[in-house]
Amino acid sequence: MPRKRTLKLSTFNVNGINSRLPNLLEWLEKEKPDIVALQELKAADQAFPADVLEAAGYGSIWHGQQSWNGVALLGRHTAPVESGRGLPGDATDKQSRYIEAAIHGIVVAGIYSPNGNPQPGPKFDYKLRWMERLAHRARSLVDLPHPVVVMGDFNVIPADEDVYDPRSFRKDALFQPESRRAYERLLKQGWTDSLRHVFGEKRIYTFWDYFRQHAERDRGLRIDHLLLNPVLAKGLIEAGVDRWVRLQEKPSDHAPAWVRVSIP
DNA sequence: ATGGCGATCTATGATCGA
């Protein structure tokens, strides 16, 4: 029997990579993810701490932006081979929200979907247009004969079970029927929503706001997702959220979400 | 209905996030 190797894939919205660096390094050391997507770097390209990550054992590529947004991909003991940056479909869109690479034999798309608040309004329109563009790119990835993951902060609460208090989010862009339909359309291409697939009826959150001890009380949202194409979904072993990271000192408001997969 | 917190620069408040 040939032994299968397993890989841990993780997505983490760090909410400022330089202010979060000690937190990020501790997490990498403890959890040792093989492939990582980071969002909300909030740093220009020249401010990305590639040397520190390299010293911690991770090769990286990144698409930075001053103050806002920004995405990166990391490979444990390997350099990601970039295949794209910037979401196709609108040459006027300068926001850094998409990066794509081959890492450990997996095609990885790291995404940071727009928040979209307040809605209605131009920010919500931009969110929906961006998600349409993502669906277009995802369609060309889903049926590849290679393992593919699209992971990141989708800024969509897929269902009532994915928010601690659905009523209080009725007017929120993350919870609008249009946002949820856009996410649903994406899944219908053939992607597996890893956390929901593994957790079934059980609640699992990836974000808790900074107010009223919501993290400690586990009053959160599930908005960070890992979508696996059919080739990769066959190897899905387990999934989870490293909630301990959210309970550290000076944490991001998100925790890393992850899957473990076997690769033939 | 609002604001609560935290990060960033425009910096001692304004803006954004979710």
From TrEMBL:
What is the top-level taxon of the source organism?
A: Bacteria
The family database entries (PROSITE patterns) matched by this protein are listed as:
AP_NUCLEASE_F1_1 (PS00726), AP_NUCLEASE_F1_4 (PS51435)
Cofactor(s) for this protein?
A: Mg(2+)
Instruction: Give the matching InterPro entries.
Output: AP_endonuc_1 (IPR004808), AP_endonuclease_F1_BS (IPR020847), Endo/exonu/phosph_ase_sf (IPR036691), Endo/exonuclease/phosphatase (IPR005135), ExoIII-like (IPR037493)
| Alphabetical keyword list | Hydrolase, Magnesium, Metal-binding
Keyword Magnesium listed: yes
Give its E.C. classification number. 3.1.11.2
Single GO molecular function: double-stranded DNA 3'-5' DNA exonuclease activity
Look at the named UniProt entry and state the broad enzyme category this protein falls under: hydrolase
Domain Endonuclease/exonuclease/phosphatase: from-to ranges: 11-254
| NCBIfam families attached to this UniProt entry | exoDNase_III, xth
Family under the similarity heading: Belongs to the DNA repair enzymes AP/ExoA family.
Concerning PANTHER family, the annotation shows: EXODEOXYRIBONUCLEASE III (PTHR43250:SF1)
Q: What's the protein here called?
A: Exodeoxyribonuclease III
Originating species: Rhodanobacter umsongensis
